[in-house]
Specification:
alpha+beta, conserved putative lor/sdh protein from methanococcus maripaludis s2 fold, Elongation Factor Tu (Ef-tu), domain 3, 4 domains, six-stranded mixed β-sheet, six-stranded antiparallel beta barrel, efflux transmembrane transporter activity, cell membrane, MdtA-like_C, HlyD family secretion protein, transmembrane helix
């Protein structure tokens, strides 16, 4: 604001000079232009002065450094982690689909009126449980009719057999002709055939009567009913009464790219039990563990993947058919692996690197060779030794040889708030290149 006041004073001074009188128009115009130019320059200077950040007197400063920029002066606060040694489980990750071992569309095998439903939607049922009843009265009548016909044929057969035995005695006494005996024998055979057909009719009627009671063919859980009591049901109707799904155990189908198959196939064919972890879509909740059960016999030429199937007990019935899940197939367990937090890994054009904190509290940019990772922890194959300290937080302010101060995460937040202008990230990347 002081600069603006000085500018206004300077303008008034020019207005009072004799060179801006009406007797010198050319000189007045030139002086006015100079006044406007100076006014613009002063305004720009005032704006820059207003926007320029005030120096932070409390920020550490090294000789020749500028106060207020922690990345360029003093020790840089960082959070570190020790390089550890231990076991590391290697997993192949994939997206899987839950598939029931058995699914049954429950339909009636006979036609009639649906008179009773004996299940609740979502109920768990056992094999043989009575679930629905079709009106049995017509089938009882049909059975009684078939049994009556059978009884009649039995009597006819018995009478024909008695006559045949009598004719055999008469024929032996030469009292009747051979043709009469043969005719009676044929009649007995005819009644025997009729009796067999009638017995089959009775069996069919009895079976149809049994089919009026619809029972669960498998253990599982029923879904929502598709028909209500009172509807007329056709035999083998396209609309099922209800769907029964076997939920214990369940199958998990997933695919792996052909590049990941060699260790899996090797261990599977050696008879090893390969563990499969089942996670939710967000990979936050693990439903449990299963085992690899089967592998397809050919690779999909379109996707370059092979289909695999795992078996999961699903004792708590956490998995639902057709549900999408994340699958982690445990391939191997690395012993005595060198482990660091994944957050400590940095990337440049020369490869992967990490900042190692030395005994003198200075960092060294160390190129390394990274191995498998589970997201939080990464195996280091080359470049680090067990017990060394690597920087996890604060890497954006570091360069090779920078002095650091090991602090906690809360201190890191306070330091970031006090020093919003940071300047080491690009330099560090150039060093890695």
């Amino acid at each position: 604001m002081r600069a603006v006041r000085d500018c206004l004073w300077f303008t008034l001074l020019f207005k009072r000079t004799p060179f801006m009188s009406e007797t010198h128009p050319i000189t007045a115009r030139s002086s006015l232009r100079w006044a406007l130019l100076i006014l613009v320059v002063i305004a720009i200077a005032a704006l820059l002065w207003w926007l320029w950040p005030a120096p932070n007197k409390e920020a550490p400063q090294r000789p020749g450094g500028r106060p207020g920029f922690g990345a360029f002066g003093g020790a840089v606060p960082v959070r570190v982690a020790k390089v550890e040694q231990g076991e590391f489980e290697v997993f192949n990750k994939a997206l899987g689909s839950v598939t029931p071992l058995n699914t049954v569309n429950l339909r009636s095998r006979v036609a009639g009126e649906l008179v009773e439903l004996r299940f609740e939607e979502g109920q768990r049922v056992k094999k043989g449980d009575l679930l629905a009843v079709i009106d049995p009265r017509p089938y009882k009548v049909a059975l009684q009719q078939a049994e009556g016909t059978l009884q009649q044929n039995r009597a006819q057969l018995k009478n024909a057999q008695v006559d045949f035995e009598r004719y055999r005695g008469l024929y032996a006494d030469d009292s009747i002709a051979k043709q009469t005996l043969d005719t009676q024998e044929a009649l007995v055979s005819q009644y025997q055939g009729t009796l067999a057909a009638n017995q089959a009719a009775v069996n069919e009627a009895r079976l149809n009567l049994e089919f009026t009671q619809i029972r669960a063919p498998i253990d599982g859980r029923v879904g929502l009913r598709q028909l209500d009591v009172g509807n007329l049901v056709a035999a083998n109707d396209t609309t099922p009464l209800v769907v029964i799904t076997q939920t214990q155990p369940m199958s998990i189908s997933f695919t792996l790219p052909e590049g990941d198959l060699l260790p899996v196939l090797t261990r599977y064919r050696q008879g090893e039990k390969l563990v499969v972890q089942i996670w939710d879509r967000g990979e936050k909740v693990m439903f449990g563990e299963g085992v690899l059960e089967s592998i397809d016999n050919q690779i999909d030429a379109t996707t370059g993947t092979l289909r695999l199937k795992a078996r999961f007990d699903n004792e708590q019935e956490l998995l639902i058919p057709n549900q999408f899940v994340n699958v982690r197939l445990r391939v191997e367990t690395l012993r005595d692996a060198v482990l660091i937090p994944t957050a400590a890994l940095q990337f440049g054009s020369r490869g992967t690197f990490a900042y190692v904190v030395g005994e003198d509290s200075k960092v060294q940019l160390r190129l390394l060779k990274a191995g498998p990772s589970n997201g939080e922890t990464t195996v280091v194959l080359e470049g680090l030794e067990v017990g060394e300290r690597v920087v996890m937080e604060g890497t954006d302010r570091l360069r090779d040889g920078a002095e650091v101060e090991v602090v906690g995460s809360r201190r890191m937040a306070e330091e970031a708030a006090e020093n919003p202008v940071l300047g080491g990230g690009e330099a560090a990347e150039r060093e890695a290149q």
